[in-house]
Amino acid sequence: MSDPTAHNGSLGPPSVPPNGAPATEQPRWRRDFPIDSDEDDYVSRRDLVKYIVLTSGAFAVGQLWLVSQKLFGRRSTPPPTLPVASVSELAVGGAKTFNYPQGSTPRLLVRLGPRAFVAYDQQCTHLQCPVIPVVEQGKLHCPCHNGWFDLRSGAPIAGPPQRRLPRVLLEVRNQTVYATGIEDGAG
Amino acid sequence: MPVPELFEFFVDPGRCIGCQSCIQACAECDTHKGQSMIQLDYVDRSRSTQTLPVLCMHCDSPTCAEVCPADAIKRTGDGVVQTARKPRCIACNNCVLACPFGVPKMNTRLNLMMKCDMCYDRTSVGLKPMCASVCPSQALAFGTRAEMTKLRPRAKPVNTFQFGMQTIRTKVNVMVPLDAPREVVDVTAAMFEPTIGHDVLDDVFESGGEG
Question: Which value does ipTM take for this structure?
């Protein structure tokens, strides 16, 4: 199609529908399937190029915004300290789920030794299945896709997961285990 | 470029001598790949030599486009109804059956409806269509209305046709005598009549053998 403005100069009257009613009173499908070819070519090459450029531009700006959030964004304040369990509650090798902060996704507390506790987010970093502690092997296992994590560090060992489990920082005071913060696995 | 509004197409069946020049010339047109899109109909072949050329009338509200389920038939801004768009045409034959003038033809080899597009490559640059440029008796004429009134003072151009309850206005004009009454084609009465080309009277050899 040539330049539409050039075409309008000698454009004749538009096609008249059989019932003769004006275009505004015609059913919707007549506008979607017009008989006149000038009305039919509503996606021009220029429109398509404009759409592609603007959409990819929006994606690029979004990426820059994410990067700037990461670099210059305000650090979120750490959640308050929360008692999780008493030391006597868990035997060595035992595990317990808890929420920290209140209302979060389940976290997993594991007692590795008389004075050694670790806690991680229970969601596997692959597709959010709950992980199961295998204390005798020193690993965490995700049964969904056979993913494995190191129990001491939370780092992925085998299977699909690529990122470490977010770690919950712990503190033991007066025979009680407190959660004091979260160390993001991605960092 | 659109077809100039000044130029109009005039068909005068009374002047047709059946020489078939238009059929040959039509096939030379570049817009339809060597296929002739014009037909020469014999009115009553056993009794008369009268022929009439049939080409697309280019309706204001094209019935072929109205019935197209694939949105393939389009009318350009200058009022020329084009051949079905190849990527859209599904070769369903709806247009072939619906056209009151019997113009669209199904090309089964290409699976594409093809019809007269008034030689769009020629008329859009101001040239005459192939058929009008060769017609020796000017039964097919392409020119201005003033020219036609001057050359044919006893005929008037008609571009409104009545088929039953359907009124059709066309871009192409048919020349009729000045005192001709308005024709109304009763489509329901003609429903069970054999179509042109399949009439028994066409079989001149058999009727000749009996007589």
Answer: 0.74
